[in-house]
């Protein structure tokens, strides 16, 4: 589920010279745009949902919250006809907690606490047929969930309703035409700010060893800035001659090293003529996606601020503000830790001091990029500490 920043597939970016957000008139073409609307679900920050499942032997009725790519909290009822049983699950990263007899049991995360994984699997289809345009755009698609009716799975059909205001899914339904069995999700409250925590928060400690002779108090200040930008409730402090980082056990050493990567950012000029390039870079190291860079190069000292927002059709975008206007250039690339994460077309006849870009990434990955740009760090070693060792 989790991916390193550098393994993310970057397709392209658009740029607009704007004030607070890109301004444009959007005229939807439902049959053409539906695939992008469905894909844009995975780029959102979070949502709430109501979930229903009906099989030949049981029903489920549940509700929950999802932070996409990170956590879910779901509560509901299993109805077996003669028996009704309550359930509650919390899933965070790769761990899951289920409530049994008033106690929380921890295990490896499964789909009981990962409805979003089910949604993604249901929406893997390429063809959507527009049925109606009323309060919402209603589409039919050929969905398959064999476990609902193993002997009749070829008869199944799917429906998806897209909000005419948000251009995001409002409901998804898959089942047999007579509704004898079905799987249904209603999605609301996109991009809410709810926090999902594990039932028992246990912190693990790590020692941070900055590269070189960096002053420890300065290093701690910078690390705190990065954690704040990432919206992580980790703590860092000085203990004698050590820097100690305390992290909830929901996160592992892999995550820590990823979040605390240097994040050295440059805005570079791009040319389409390889003969005019001063160097060649690649998207995520892919030699088939080369980018020809010019001598134009602006570092973090030229960046005033960075922000992450959603536009009026709910696409996430980054806005980088510069301290002063740069010379006209046809295209720039955003480079972080020697990897190109986006290229952006510009107005070659205008000086600019603001760049708004739409990398094809999930929200949490864009949040990492924002944090890297806002607070670059330094190379460091991260060492796990045994309990009571400091």
Task: Describe the structure concisely.
This protein is mainly beta and 390 residues long.
What can you see in these coordinates?
The protein is mostly beta strands and 390 residues long. The protein is 14% helix and 42% strand. The protein is built from 5 helices and 24 strands. The strands form 4 sheets. It has an 11-stranded antiparallel sheet with strand order 7-6-5-4-3-2-12-11-10-9-8, with helices on one face. Strands 17-18-16-21-22 form a 5-stranded antiparallel sheet. It is flat.
List the helices and strands and how they pair.
Layout: E1 15-16, H1 30-40, E2 46-54, E3 59-67, E4 71-79, E5 84-92, E6 95-100, E7 103-108, H2 115-122, E8 129-133, E9 136-141, E10 157-163, E11 169-175, E12 182-188, E13 203-210, H3 216-230, E14 235-239, E15 242-248, H4 253-259, E16 265-270, E17 279-282, E18 290-298, E19 303-310, E20 316-326, E21 331-336, E22 339-345, E23 352-357, H5 363-374, E24 380-384
Antiparallel strand pairs: 1-23, 2-3, 2-12, 3-4, 4-5, 5-6, 6-7, 8-9, 9-10, 10-11, 11-12, 13-15, 13-24, 14-15, 16-18, 16-21, 17-18, 19-20, 20-23, 21-22
Helix pairs in contact: 3-5
